[in-house]
Please model this.
Amino acid sequence: MKEKLNLSEIAFKLVLLLFFASFYLLAISFPEKSKSFPQLIALFSLVMIVISLMMDFTRKGTETAEITDVDDTELKVLDEKARKAKKKRFYKAWGIILVAAAAGFLGGFLFTAFFFFLGFALIFGKRENLPKNIFVAVGMTVIIYFSFQWIMDVPLLHGILW
Model:
């Protein structure tokens, strides 16, 4: 059977699109130094939402298979395993976020960004991709540092250690 467009998901994306567009327009009246960050977030969000909407409308219907010859008790066991795995991923993700935030109190936002990227690379990445994931974590931290520190003149190393 063919998968149809999820209208509630598309409606939610359109509401988000309007929200971030109004957020971008609202930031125009901010002072020069303080408007670049909200506009950057709004612009990035707008681009991501537009790309997501384009993918929704251009995606061909995918075939979904129906489950046959499976007992209801087997499905319940599979659902329970999936639920436990999802719960475990949720707690791991929140652990990474909290550790990264604690690191931010010590060294500032740059520490938070680095430990956030590194934590997700180590916990959720595959072992064979570990060097590439660590390289991406370091690269993203450097990009964040240059874009905030030099382009927007926002100091990132302000924590207890500094």
Summary: The radius of gyration is 21 Å.
